[in-house]
Specification:
Layout (H helix, E strand, L loop, with lengths): L12 H14 L8 E2 L2 H8 L5 H5 L3 E4 L3 E4 L20
Antiparallel strand pairs: 1-3, 2-3
Length: 90
């Protein structure tokens, strides 16, 4: 995660989690399957003791000895387009 897009360390834990969640779900910067910094590095970078809320929500997956990844099952879904509706006839 880059410092330009990441929440700043020292902010409240809830704001950090919300910022990370938004970054992972609402932007194209971290598509599903993206390998991130290690779990420990992410915790230190954002000043949080645990990333369990993000793991519980399925946003992140940790593969021990391999790395931390953006979950594929929590992928950002493209907005659905609605079919044009015919005009109302009087």
């Amino acid at each position: 995660m880059t410092s330009e897009t990441a929440p700043k360390a020292g902010t409240s834990r809830r704001r950090v989690y919300d910022g990370l969640k938004q970054m992972l779900t609402d932007t194209d910067a971290y598509p599903p399957g993206t390998k991130l910094s290690t779990y420990t590095e992410i915790r230190k970078q954002y000043g949080v003791a645990s990333l369990v809320p993000l793991l519980d929500e399925g946003l992140l997956i940790v593969h021990l000895g391999v790395g931390t990844f953006v979950s594929r099952r929590h992928a950002r879904r493209p907005k659905r387009r609605r079919a044009p509706q015919p005009p109302d006839t009087p």
